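Quick board copy: two proteins, each given as sequence then tokens.
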Amino acid sequence: MKPSISKIILNDFPSLFSLLSLVILWLPAVLVGLPLAFHLMISFMPAAVLIWRVLRINEFFKSGMLAEGCVERLQFVKDRARLEYSYRVGDQKFNDWCPVHRTKRTKGLRPGMPVAVLHDPHHPERSIIRDLFEAKR
């Protein structure tokens, strides 16, 4: 089971926003011909967020524990949504949420629908929905 970078960028709203920010910030800078130091300065934050999100999701796939979860609520606002879900680890129930982008996959989710959740074995309250980021087999 491996994550797909394209699925991370398409489904994870912070990743998509960071990538779009890089493009939007670099285009005018390149067209106007600003110095390289300026390009690097304006690119640091969105690049850092994008790298952090990809590495974080990869870490869940490497060392996360699988749990059965359930979609609780999906609230779309324009092209993004707040996806709330719950899952059990042992006899303890956890509720979590993630910001997602409106895609065919996220539009197909419904409250009550089962989802595969990957949670941190040392901090079970930290999790992601595996199905959103898993590469095709």
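And the next:
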Amino acid sequence: MKITRTLLGALAGLTLFACSNDDFGTAGNGTNEPADVLIKLNLPNVGAGTRTVAEDFTEANPTTGITTPVEISYIKITLKAQEADEPLTVEGAPTDVFNVTGEKARRFANVINPESVTVEINTKTGEGFTTTVSQATIEDLNKIAIEDTPMYGESTEFTMGAECLETTVNMRHTMARLEFGGLKHNPEDEEYSAGTLAAVFLNTLQLQKDGNITTYHTTEELETAVGEGASWYDEVNANTFFTEEEPTSYPTNGGCYAYNIYPAVGGQLPIFTLRFDDLVASEGSKEVGTLYAGVSTYRIADTTSADIVADLCGEQPETADEGYYLVKNFPAGYIYQVRELEPIGDGSIKYPDPDLGGFCLVATINVIPWTIVEGSVTWK
């Protein structure tokens, strides 16, 4: 896991048109009349960027609210129909798939009885697009840049327009993202005279695509997992965390600790956790050793749009604090940002094990497609 910048993508829509061919008449479900089928891809402007080299939080365009959207490098379109003049599956780079001048579109000629269309974006990579993009594990997921995220869409609903048979395919994201920054010590807290902020990490998270939630209950379990490689774990090693008169904000570059995650809906949410080593208590200079602190609540401002509140908090949102709703879900297609964590102290560094107990996410959210979620947390 690296301190990173990401670029946001946008939710995409695809519109399928089965346009009448003057030579063959109008086609539709349940007929045997051939017609050309035109599949149009509707996306915002595309752009470039990487997930692993930058430092800042993802930023939204101040006018549109949308940042760099998904950049299409590979696309696969599959049209299911009774018959057509050409293969009903096309794939490759956009320049190979789109065959309508000046449009992100693919025309299939003389199609009989179109039934469905499925679309994949960025599900393959490499020369000749022979390598399938894996999302099997959390490690795979954290190799994917936001603008390269795989997307899927399908539709079986066709309606007759003024001249064409039409259907809309709404593309869906496959992952969410957490970004944390502004982490600092509360200078008024004098519980510890020394110690190191050793690391920050996610606990209680899904490590495999179809797997269960994993929680690391002890330091030994955690260290074993980190030794095997963990994209959800960042070393900090801030040994002056408790001794600075003017607390440093971590990460020190003003950026964030960022993690791609599987959607978390209707279950346990990942817990942002801090590890402190070599702690020394102020009272009696007693050596304490390793303790943990973690986020107890994620919340979203109650002024957030109703649709986003419903996605993150449910149809009947619960109040977390005055002016905030309790977040219960991390659906795919959102970036959840916590730009300035509450100062650490006041008894929050107290857990001997990384299993901090039951947690509930709270993030103050400002959402756009490939959504930025800007929020705050409270400590356990």
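Board note added afterward: The CA atoms of residues 10 and 369 lie 5 Å apart.
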